[in-house]
TrEMBL record:
Keyword presence, Cell cycle: no
Pfam families on file: GFO_IDH_MocA, GFO_IDH_MocA_C3
Top-level taxon of origin: Bacteria
Record-linked InterPro entries: Gfo/Idh/MocA-like_OxRdtase_N (IPR000683), Gfo/Idh/MocA_domain (IPR050984), GFO_IDH_MocA-like_dom (IPR055170), NAD(P)-bd_dom_sf (IPR036291)
Entry-linked PANTHER family: OXIDOREDUCTASES (PTHR22604), TRANS-1,2-DIHYDROBENZENE-1,2-DIOL DEHYDROGENASE (PTHR22604:SF105)
Annotated protein name in UniProt: Gfo/Idh/MocA family oxidoreductase
Domain Gfo/Idh/MocA-like oxidoreductase N-terminal: 11-126
Family designation: Belongs to the Gfo/Idh/MocA family.
Naturally occurring in which organism (per UniProt): Streptomyces albiaxialis
Keywords associated with the record: Oxidoreductase
Domain GFO/IDH/MocA-like oxidoreductase: 138-253
């Protein structure tokens, strides 16, 4: 399969792994996209592949078989984080465009290597960080630019989830990068998105699980060159919370459900200033459909993915910085 496409035929996609996120969000988005056709799902377990294939009207294949197929233009990779580097590289070397789950890889060197490999081959490689594709973040940006809370002084973001079953891949050191790469990535990426690329990590605390040594939670202090601070928390031993909050010179702006709003959710922005409280309800938006559209557009037009590659690289470097600077506490 060549790297470029004519516009008429659907973009034929394969899925590497019958993952929960593929079932709940990405296969529905791929199947619903007018210019995209999910052609095959690969699994280590044929029965699981059959269940996914029946639900989404596609075929089944083994992992290697899927990559070798000339009937597939692009692959979606929702494998556990530590397997991304290997399978994204294999997919690119097989000539496929790749939509890869976050984190693109577990370290900045690998991430840079894969982004270069894709560029050299004229292939699209997009990390599936979906929330910046949701309209609500564009609304937040506009309101901040309009000075609704004055000048932004501090930012806080959180992504925390309740404890997961013991058999969840996030407890397995052989395949999971732990909660920093899985959940911590979101508030860090949100700080990059809203505060800009000159963000640097000042300090962090990472809590590790005794026995596995995996990060289960943490808190990060970062700041921009202008001194805007970012207080970022994450973990998988909490109640569920995804939020962004901006403290400005004249008020506060808060967004709940900042990272994982379902497609029918109408986001609510809260603005507080002295003597003024306001809730603004925004329209619903489907960030996963938007990612698929952006991916398809990049493949068809060859116009690239905007600044997505640069953001993936910056994100990977910041996460590596967190690991390097963090105080580690094992419990
Ligand atoms: N973008 C988002 O909003 C979002 C949300 C949630 C998760 N994610 C990301 O998506 C990825 C998958 O997360 P998930 O929660 O969907 O995980 P999951 O349900 O555990 O799915 C991972 C899949 O990888 C396949 N796999 C292949 N080799 C494996 C191995 N050695 N061990 C375990 N699984 C293996 C399995 O499919 P087979 O058994 O069929 O081979 C498994 O179903 C992660 O990178 C995560 O960070 C992204």
């Amino acid at each position: 399969m060549e790297a470029s496409h004519t516009t008429e035929r659907p973009l034929r996609c394969g899925v590497l792994g019958c993952a929960d996120i593929a079932w709940r969000r990405m296969l529905p988005a791929l199947a619903a996209a007018p210019g995209v056709e999910p052609v095959a799902v690969a699994s280590r377990d044929p029965a699981r592949a059959e269940r996914f294939a029946a639900a989404f009207g596609c075929g089944t294949a083994g992992y290697e078989e899927l990559l070798a197929s000339s009937g597939i233009d692009a692959v979606y990779v929702p494998l556990p984080p530590l397997l991304h580097a290997e399978w994204v590289e294999r997919a690119l070397r097989a000539g496929k465009h790749v939509l890869a789950e976050k984190p693109l890889t577990h370290d900045p060197e690998h991430t840079g290597h894969l982004l270069r490999l894709a560029a050299e081959r004229g292939l699209v490689l997009l990390e599936n960080v979906a929330f910046p594709h949701h309209d609500q973040h564009a609304s937040v940006r506009k309101m901040l630019a309009d000075g609704v809370i004055g000048e932004v002084r501090d930012f806080a973001a959180a992504f925390t989830i309740p404890p997961l079953p013991e058999d969840n891949m996030r407890h397995r050191p052989d395949v999971s990068g732990g909660a920093l790469l899985d959940m911590g990535l979101y508030p860090v990426r949100a700080a990059l998105h809203h505060l800009g690329p000159d963000l640097r990590v000042l300090h962090a605390v990472l809590r590790l699980r005794a026995g596995t040594g995996l990060v289960v939670a943490g808190r990060i202090l970062a700041c921009t060159a202008a001194g805007v601070t970012a207080d970022l928390s994450f973990g998988m031993e909490h109640s569920y919370r995804t939020s962004c909050e901006f403290a400005g010179s004249t008020g506060r702006l808060t967004l709940d459900r900042a990272f994982t709003p379902p497609p029918d959710h109408r986001p609510v922005l809260r603005v507080e200033r002295q003597d003024h409280r306001e809730e603004i309800t925004l329209r619903a938006d489907d960030q996963f459909a938007n990612v698929v559209r952006a991916f398809e557009r990049a493949v068809r037009t060859g116009s690239g993915t905007g600044d997505a590659s640069e953001s993936s690289l910056r994100l990977a470097r910041l996460l590596a910085d967190v690991e390097q600077k963090a105080v580690l506490i094992t419990r």
